[in-house]
Amino acid sequence: MVSIDDVKxxxxxxxxxxxxxPVLTSALLNEKSGNxxxxxSEHLQKTGSFKVxxxxxxxxxxxxxGANYVTAAxxxxxxxxxxxxxxxxxxxxxxxxxxxxxxxxxxxIKAYKGEVVYCGTTSAERIxxxxxxxxxxxxxxxxxxxxxxxxxxxxxxGLELIDQVPEADIIVVPVxxxxxxxxxxxxxxxxxxxxxxxxxxxxxxxxxxLSINNNKITAIHGTTTIADGLRTSQPGNLTFPILxxxxxxxxxxxxxxxxxxxxxxxxxxxxxxxxxxxxxxAAIFSGKLETADKNIVAVLSGGNVDLxxxxxxxxESSTV
Length: 320
What we know:
Number of strands: 10
CATH class of the largest domain: Alpha Beta
CATH architecture of the largest domain: 3-Layer(aba) Sandwich
Number of helices: 12
Radius of gyration: 18 Å
Strand content: 15-25%
Largest sheet: 6 strands, mixed
Structural class: alpha/beta
Helix content: 40-55%
Order of helices and strands: HEHEHEHEHEHEHEHEHHEHHE
CATH topology of the largest domain: Rossmann fold
C-alpha cells in the first residue's frame, strides 16, 4: 500500500515540474452552503488537471529505469498529462482514448505531441489496447490511477492543501478510478487523521459507491454521465483497499445537480471547471454532507472543457 513517505518522495520529485495550485474562496459559496468553502484549484494546474502529478511521477521513474516510449488509456486528462511529461522528457507517447472523447482534450493531447488512438467507450476496452501497444513497442504503460507512483503523485494534492488550509474539517474529492482520492487519503490520514475525507460521485457512474457498499470491487457498464473524467468501470485494485481503510463517506449526485454546480461556478465565481470537478461542488450543495459552519475543501480536479459542449452542461432551473 502507498505510504505517506511515498507521497513525500513524489513531492520532491515533482518540484519544479508541477505548480502548487491556489486555494480560492467565495463569500457567495459560503453563504449558499452555510459553511466556509475552500477551492483547491487543480483546474489551474499544468495541463489543466491534477493528472499531471501522478503521470509525471510515474513517467520520471520509468525513464530513470530506461523507458523511451510510454502509452496511456485516458478519457482525456490523464492522456494530456502523459503526453505533456513525455514531451518534456523527450520520449514518444501514444494515448488510447474513447471514441466519444472530449474534442478539446484530444486537441490538447496532440498539442503536447502525443499520438492518439481511438478504442471503444469504456476504460475496460481502452486499457488493454494501451497495454498491448506498450508491449508491442517495448514501452511503459502508465495507468490512469492504479499504480503506486500515480497514487503517490496525486497524493501531493493532499500535502499541499493541508498546509494551505490547516483548519480544514472536511475534504470533498471527486472519484472515478480512485487515484486522486487514494492519494489524498494517504497523505491526509497520515498527517491529520481527524479531517474527514468524503468522495463525490455521479449517480450514473456509481462504481465506487457500489464497491464500498458491497465490500468488494464492483464493476458497472458504460455510462454517459457528463462528468466524463469519472467514467471508470470500477475502482482500481490498488486504490480500492485505501478507500476501504480510510474513506469517511461517499455522496452521490445527479446529472442535474452536477449541471447546477457547473453553472453556479461559471456564472457566480467565474471559474470554468469540468463537470467532473463540479461533482464536488454538487455534493456540498446537495445537503447530503449534513454540515454547518465547517471548513470544507472542495478539490476542483480539472478544467479542460470543450467550449462547444458547454451548452450541454447548463440547466434552466436554479443553479443552487
